[in-house]
Every structure is written in C-alpha cells, then in structure tokens.
Design goal:
With 281 residues, the protein is an all-alpha fold. Helix content is 70%, strand content 0%.
C-alpha cells in the first residue's frame, strides 16, 4: 500500500507594512538580521582594502603619518604633558582616527547602498552600524602599534587601563554611531553632507584635544571641552595608557551625557526618516 504523501508546508511568510507612529529603535529586528549585519561589516572591510598595495597596513599608516606632522609642528604641546611627542600624539590619534573613519564611512552608508535599499528589505540601522563595526579592525591595528611604541619608549600601561581603555572605546563607539545615524539620514536628503563631513572632521581634530593636553586649560573651559565627547575619550586614553593628567570627572560626565543624547536623538531621527529612504535615495 502506497504511503500517503504529507502535505507540503508553506514557507515562512513575512508581511512588511509601513509603520505608523513610534515603533521603537528596532533592536530586536537587528538581532534577527545579525547574520546580515556581520556580512555587511565583513564586506565593508574587504571593499575598503581591495586592490591596495599595503592592505590593512593603511589602518596604522594613517595615524602614523599624521603623528609625524603633529610632532613637527606642535611638539611643544607634548612637552607640557611630560610625554615624548610621538607617543603623546599617537595615543590621541588612535581613538580619534577610529571616530573619524567611523563617521566618514557611516555617513555614506545609506547612499552607498542605494541599490540595496530600493530592492531588498533589511533593518536600515544595519548600514551605519556595520560601518562603525568595520572600523574596529582599524582601531585594533592602530592600538597594537601604540602598544609597541609604548614599549619602545619604556612606558607600560597601568592596571587601570584594562578597564579604562574599553570604557573610553565604548564612549567613542557611542559617539561615532550617534553622529553616523544623524549624518547618514541627512545625507539621503541633502548630499551636501558628504562635502561638509570631511571639513568638520578636520576641525574636530583640533577641538578634541588631540593636539594639546586638556590639563593646560583653565576652568571652566576644561570642563566645557567635554561638550565634545571625543575630547573626553582622547584625554582618558592618554591618562590610562601614558599616566598623564587625569580627566576631570565633570568633563567625562559631560562627555557621556552628550554622547548618549547624540545616540538617542540620532536613532529617533533615523527611525523617523527611515520610511522615506528607498524613495529619496
């Protein structure tokens, strides 16, 4: 007697409807699409260094070359901190380069994926988030070079660095992602953003305390420098690794408040404009 075939099961069907009103930040949706997020992150890394002679070595060469320029023209600022110029500037450039590259990549993440946005559904937050995650590789390479330089100069991290460095990196990550959400959404509607971002990053290099030590500033300017969260990150990195003047608690607290506000407001604006991305881009 022939067996009765089982009825075929319909494949899982997901109906996508336009959202109305506030529906949250979509974190659960990001987790559902985590494999796609990982793929997008890996693709960004491959494309960035494809057909380059030095490959990922550029991740270390960028801050190294900028370190040479800053040492030649602003070496006197490093002397006030009591640290050799090259290590002083490079310690500030490692987190700053991570932030600058993250913002530059994430601000163009939606426009760069225009074809994908208009044809396939995926959490739009994945695009700028993948750009920031991909830049962590650059940070790891530059940070490794920084550790080698510290050994060369006879400077060794204190135990506090084990906790402080990841904490300040997290602050830089939150700041970069918040700025990336704002700029990537704005860039869809106003392509002027792609020309403004490099100029703002150049100014930010000086405003974030990479060139000078925050300890040289008098109050209230030293605390107000924390309005730029990357100033708190740069100062914290130098303190944790090089034992320079510690950052003021008020400055770090202000940097954390601004970074969180930037991330939350950026996510709200991004989600609000998300429904128009495919039509405008």
């Amino acid at each position: 007697m022939a067996a009765t075939p089982l009825p075929a099961r319909d494949p899982a069907l997901q109906v996508i409807r336009p959202r109305s009103g506030w529906t949250g930040f979509g974190l659960s949706e990001l987790w559902t699409y985590r494999e796609l997020l990982a793929f997008m992150t890996w693709r960004i890394i491959l494309v960035r260094y494809k057909q380059t002679l030095l490959g990922v070595a550029w991740a270390g060469l960028q801050p190294l070359l900028l370190m040479v320029v800053l040492t030649l023209f602003f070496g006197s600022f490093a002397k006030k901190a009591g640290v050799p110029g090259p290590i002083f500037f490079f310690a500030g450039l490692v987190p700053w380069t991570f932030f600058a590259n993250s913002v530059s990549q994430s601000s163009n993440s939606l426009v760069g994926n225009a074809n994908l946005l208009s044809k396939v559904y995926f959490p739009r937050l994945a695009a700028p988030l993948a750009a920031v995650l991909a830049t962590l590789l650059d940070f790891a390479i530059a940070f490794g070079i920084l550790l080698v330089m510290m050994v060369f100069y006879g400077i060794y991290p204190r135990p506090i660095a084990v906790v402080a460095v990841p904490a300040f990196l997290a602050l830089a990550f939150v700041t970069a992602l918040g700025a990336g959400l704002w700029l990537s959404a704005l860039n869809v509607a106003y392509r002027d953003v792609q020309y403004v971002v490099p100029f703002l990053l150049q100014l930010g290099l000086f405003a974030s305390g990479v060139v000078f030590s925050a300890a040289t500033l008098a109050e209230p300017w030293r605390t107000l420098l924390g309005l730029d969260p990357m100033a708190g990150v740069v100062t914290g990195f130098r303190w944790a690794l090089l034992d320079t003047a510690p950052p003021m608690a008020s400055m770090i607290l202000l940097s954390i408040i601004v970074a969180v506000a930037l991330l939350v407001s950026g996510a709200v604006y991004f989600r609000r404009m998300e429904r128009t991305f495919a039509d405008v881009v």
